[in-house]
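Notes to self, DUF805 domain-containing protein:
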Amino acid sequence: MSPETLQQLAVLLLWIAPAFLPFVIHPNGPNRFGAPRRTEGFEAAVRSGLARAFDFKGRASRGEYGGFLLLFVGVYCAAALMDGAFGLSGFYIAPMLLLVPYVAVTTRRLHDLNRSGWWQLLALGAGVFVLFFLLAQPSPQPLRQTLRRPVGPVRMAGHR
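result:
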């Protein structure tokens, strides 16, 4: 094989390999990122996303992520329309101001799926489709509490 062919294969592998990561890496056990957080409605999702704009800890529900994604895409589309209509590219500052809160909400959404926020790096290549697939997944159900047996000897009523 020629060096050019090897180089092309290597680049192809770098683009295809991230697509298989979610199928290979499965987080097990209880969620290590805290208790789930639920929001109701678009307005609550946007308020929560903006209130916790720089909070990369905790969890975000699928509804909270979806509402904030809708806001982010809407603001970007409005800026693009304003740019096309008036030729002013200054409107793109609005989606740029929402970029850090969007990354924070995405990190919290990945935490809700019991994954690290670093999974966002998949968006740098063809893994962006895999990332959106992951973010659309429902939250895992919490483990049901089983009936716990008492520690130590069991004492019956009336016995010593």
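- The mean pLDDT is 80.
- The two ends are 82 Å apart (CA to CA).
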